[in-house]
Amino acid sequence: MNEDKVRLSFLGLGYVGLTTAACFASRGFRVLCFDVDKFKVEVVRSGKVPFFEPGLEELVKASVERGTLKALEDSREAILGSDITFITVGTPAKEDGSIDLTYVKEASKIIGEALHDKDGWHLVVVKSTVVPTTTEKVVGRTVEKCSGKLAGKDFGLCANPEFLREGNAVEDTFKPDRIVIGESDRRSGDMLEELYRKFYGENIPPIVRTTLVNAELIKYANNAFLATKISFMNMIANLCQKLPGADVEAIADGIGLDKRIGPLFLKAGIGWGGSCFPKDLKALINFSQKMEVDLPIIEATLKVNETQPYKIVELAKELVGGLENKRISVLGLSFKPETDDMRYAVSIKVVNRLLEEGAKVIAYDPKAVHNARKIFGETIEYANSVEECLKGSECALIVTEWSAFKSLKPEDFIRLMKIPAVVDGRRIYAPEVYSKKLRFKAIGLGERKYYNPALAVNAIISKDNSILLVKRSVEPFKGLWSLPGGFVEYDETVEDSITREVKEETGLSVEPVKVVGVYSQPTRSPAKHAVTVCYLCNILGGELKTSDENIEVKFFSVECLPRQLAFDHLKIIEDYLKCK
Ligand code: UGA
């Protein structure tokens, strides 16, 4: 087989079809492509791409200009002008979750009718994701019926599933982990393997040659396993969130180093979406049910994912209270970064739940707004930039991990928002940085601090060289050391915390602070107004002052402070210092 002679055709110009076609064309293969959607054909013909995919437009443009990639409105011309036809049409889910093979059947019919008039042998390759037996029983038989020819004799049949990811499609095509070739007969498999050998040259990835059903099932098992890995971590994340000191990121690092588990696809978040995982898992379950086989692990994987998007809304409510009439910023709408694809994007559930809660939603996405508008219409506001999205907002939710959001600093949120409060649904921010500067919660992040809700600073008194923090308690003091704001972080000692917080928040140099004691003075209503006095001083050399006449205590009228107002206590300290 000579690459100058082998000609390829692609039926279906979605992510898989157009990316594979353009990659082959970019390496000199002659590629004809077709789509029933005339708009797509027109766009590709003009050297453009009908959706956003990094790096693809350059390849399409160059190949169209070079004449190696041609988009045709006539499918017959494409098929008869080629030696191998790839079926790359969509296989969406029907209402009941079963696979919708309408486009696959249509493509098979078109191929059969064209092959009816072809003398030579032709290879038909199913690249679309199809449930086991489809290649043989639907594609093969339809082509046989419409062409009057026999599979394995007059034409060849392969199932060649695709593993590229949206947003990484070009790179994944040039550097796949493996190529899976399911074949109806040896000649078909040989021809496809030969094509890939020519395409990859020395960098040929491992090739798996197998039966048609195995190839079809490999694709489903692959996606189901990946989705299960993510749902598994999301399940662990939900546990971490309730467990002070726990962090799912640390768990992922810890288990990812086990070679039997591996580090990829362990990123917890607010669930997976996209055009593949949701429909493929449902199709596999539906297919198996027809065969009277249960797939409980895959059902659980879907179940975890059903409710995961709502976790970010729950966290937002914990952070800022009820959402009614609050301006909430949604950062990211596409189902993952580097794509404008909104299919099964978790943002849909997040935004709808926010609207149900009465929030005023303003959203920003670098690429997906035009697609999001088709879903949300005018029920939400669309910002043109991150800044516009955050301005005046009372809580920001990270829904998709675009790099533009990763580079934001706590100061950006503080500068722009009415109340700087961030819920990180994709774990893009370092909690140790964010949680110290603004109200912050993240998926899979347990309380980072011991919080004694009673121990809230409501005054700071500095006298001579000593610092006195006055706190009041609504609970009996439990022997838990406290910080300004009532926090002790898990990864530091009490002394370190106090030194750091006092210095960071007030600018006072108290290094090295030594906690010398706690003085607790219940007031008339011990349950609500007990006062805990923590006397910090390195100069006092361990001496605990408990006598009121040595200190000037100034009380601020701060009512029993709810948990989420902890950061306001630091303001009180600052205000006090300013008036001194
Ligand atoms: C997925 C597979 O990864 C591809 O191998 C496959 O070819 C493709 O489906 C398909 O069947 O066509 P894709 O849906 O494009 O690719 O995107 P992924 O990168 O797999 O992400 C899917 C979802 O999982 C996204 O919502 C993403 O945010 C989420 N995800 C991914 C996580 O939440 N955590 C992770 O660790 C990884």
Number of helices: 22
Q: Helix amount, in percent?
A: 40-55%
Strand order of the largest sheet: 3-2-1-4-5-6-7-8
Mean pLDDT: 83
Shape: elongated
Q: What is the SS-derived class? A: alpha/beta
Residue fraction in strands: 15-25%
Q: Tally of extended strands?
A: 20
Amino-to-carboxy terminus distance: 87 Å
Q: Rounded to an integer, what's the Rg over CA atoms?
A: 31 Å
Largest sheet: 8 strands, mixed
Structure description:
The chain is α/β, with parallel strands linked by helices and 580 residues long. Helix content is 41%, strand content 17%. The chain has 22 helices and 20 strands. The strands form four sheets. An eight-stranded mixed β-sheet has the order 3-2-1-4-5-6-7-8, with helices on both faces. It has a six-stranded parallel β-sheet with strand order 11-10-9-12-13-14, with helices on both faces. The protein has a four-stranded antiparallel β-sheet with strand order 16-17-20-19. Helix 14 links the parallel strand 9 and strand 10. The longest helix has 30 residues. The N and C termini lie far apart (87 Å). The site of uridine-5'-diphosphate-glucuronic acid has 21 residues, from helix 9 and helix 11.
